[in-house]
Design a protein that fits this description.
The chain has helices at about 15-25, 35-40, 70-75, 80-90, 115-120, 135-145, 165-185, 195-205, 220-225, 240-250, 255-275; strands spanning about 30, 45-60, 95, 160-165, 185-190, 210-215, 275-290, 295, 295-300, 305, 310. The protein is an alpha+beta fold and about 325 residues long.
């Protein structure tokens, strides 16, 4: 038998959430103050579990200077993802080396590998034997020079947009510092409340924006059909007829190997050629649950099930 009643409390103050959990007012929380993360992870109170999703930056691909793929690639290569997950987010996230995250099934994978393993990396991360952040930044500076901005000279001041949150702010400040230090460019930060932020991003009224996507179902299409020309989730204003054709081919195919191949080719275009997206890390889910509760179930799609929850014996 499950619980007779579950009470959800709407709260947006992370300190109040943790305080409520400590006092026994709350039995389950999904968010905690950023500064508390390392300690809570270390003592095992904060649970870290798999979550199929990608935290990323998108560029407004129709507006200068980010209408130039060389500029987008430069900004992408100049990011130290290891620093972000180890020193900023600190909740077990995995540095991203592509857009479709680890854990997404690849139906054509003969060895049972997932889509990310089969697709490979679009840039190196620190788990790669040949990873060299300094070399990545050197390439980034050359790309920026090729685009007409040697050492960042003449590059306009651009804005990074994110929704109000201490965690997003910390990531934004890290990116701002990396881009300024490694590329010699000035990036200002702007935060907006959630509803306003979503509309601003959807309208394309930005240069660089924070973004994230969690799988609705375990298939690469969940991540890739977002970027069809004119698509409702295409906040990057991305347009590529070849990409569109590959996605449509995958949607129409009944052959698992053919549709997976089409989606790999599509990701090669948006990531390896057009550099429309800048993946930072693959999500993990974090939560705290009271010792008084048994029987909660979780899936990597981010769903928590409480229908069988009951007081601990």
């Amino acid at each position: 038998l499950g619980p007779e009643k579950i009470t959800f409390k709407l709260m947006d103050d992370q300190n109040a959430m943790l305080s409520g959990f400590r006092s026994g007012e709350l039995d389950f929380i999904e968010d905690v103050p950023q500064a508390e993360l390392p300690g809570l992870v270390a003592n095992g109170e904060l649970k870290i579990v798999d979550y199929i999703g990608t935290y990323y930056v998108c560029y407004q691909t129709q507006k200068a200077p980010f209408n130039d793929p060389r500029v987008r690639q430069a900004f992408t290569l100049a990011v130290d993802r290891t620093f972000i997950v180890d020193q900023v987010t600190q909740a077990g996230q995995v540095p991203a080396n592509g857009f479709v995250p680890a854990g997404v099934y690849d139906a054509a994978g003969s060895t049972g590998d997932d889509f990310r393993t089969v697709g490979g990396a679009y840039y190196t991360i620190d788990s790669d034997p040949d990873y060299d952040y300094a070399k990545n930044c050197e390439q980034a500076r050359q790309l920026l020079a090729d685009a007409g901005y040697p050492n960042g000279e003449g590059f306009p001041v651009v804005e990074y947009l994110y929704n109000t949150s201490d965690a997003h702010k910390a990531v934004a400040e890290a990116l701002q510092n990396m881009w300024q230090t490694e590329l010699g460019v000035t990036v200002t930060l702007n935060n907006q409340e959630w509803a306003v932020f979503l509309q601003t991003r959807k309208d394309g009224d930005y240069s660089i924006a924070r973004n994230g996507w969690i799988a609705d179902y375990n298939d690469p299409m969940c991540f890739l059909d977002m970027w069809l020309t004119g698509g409702g989730n295409n906040d990057a204003q991305y347009v590529n007829a070849e990409y569109d054709a590959l996605i449509q081919r995958a949607k129409l195919s009944t052959d698992p190997a053919e549709r997976m191949q089409a989606m790999h080719e599509a990701e090669d275009i948006i990531m390896g050629e057009d550099w429309a997206l800048n993946p930072l890390y693959f999500y993990t889910q974090k939560y705290m649950i009271s010792d008084r509760i048994d029987g909660m179930f979780y899936t990597p799609l981010g769903y928590f099930f409480f229908m069988y929850a009951q007081p601990a014996a």
